[in-house]
Design brief:
The structure is a single chain. The protein is mainly alpha-helical and 82 residues long. 83% of the residues lie in helices and 0% in strands. Helix 1 crosses helix 2. 0% of the residues are buried.
Length: 82
């Protein structure tokens, strides 16, 4: 599908051309990527937030497991001394 934009500020167009040249891609490719990024930005940020939550919960569970293992090691050490 095509999108046609008119009356774009010439300075903005020049900056877009400079940015696309730095990436060694055409202005078309650069703008296509930018538009698609804008379109999916909300979904990506929501997925990032969910991933952060999952990572935090995993860290919490791992800390609990580590504490449990430490307690078991201490208990076993105490039992072996008796």
């Amino acid at each position: 599908m095509d999108i046609i934009l008119r009356n774009i500020d010439p300075i903005a167009v020049k900056k877009i051309e400079e940015m696309s040249k730095k990436k060694n891609i055409s202005r078309q490719e650069f703008l296509k990527s930018a538009v698609e990024k804008i379109a999916y930005e909300k979904e990506v940020s929501e997925k990032d937030a969910r991933l952060e939550m999952i990572i935090s919960k995993n860290i919490e569970v791992m800390e609990q497991m580590s504490n449990s293992v430490t307690r078991l090691e201490n208990l076993l050490a105490d039992l072996m001394e008796e």
